[in-house]
Design goal:
The protein is mainly alpha-helical. It contains four helices and two strands, in the order ββαααα. The chain is 64% helix and 4% strand.
Length: 104
């Protein structure tokens, strides 16, 4: 059973959206790991007045890559400090580089 939606079935629409999301993720990874592309993307974001999104993505990636996660048990206090820095810089209302998040 496939639920029909305007323009096709739900499964087809979902698969297409997932495929597009994966493709965008792969493209972002290419940009992130290429110094030249990363700098060009940063310039583009500055021109579009949305560099805070790129800065947040970088900070979150650094947070995920912290060696603090590898320690057993993880250093919760250090992780909390790093997480709070992200919140204060990007997510807190009025933050210096506040990102626009709907319904937050």
């Amino acid at each position: 059973y496939q639920r029909r939606v305007r323009g096709g079935c739900l499964n087809t629409k979902y698969k297409s959206a997932v495929k597009k999301k994966i493709h965008l993720h792969d493209r972002f990874e290419q940009i992130y790991h290429s110094e030249e592309l990363s700098l060009k993307f940063e310039e583009y974001c500055m021109k579009q007045l949305c560099v805070e999104n790129l800065l947040l993505a970088r900070q979150v990636r650094q947070f995920r890559d912290l060696e603090l996660w590898d320690v057993k048990p993880p250093d919760k206090e250090a992780l909390l400090i790093a997480a709070k820095e992200i919140y204060e810089s990007y997510l807190k209302p009025g933050a210096e580089f506040e990102v626009s998040i709907p319904n937050m």
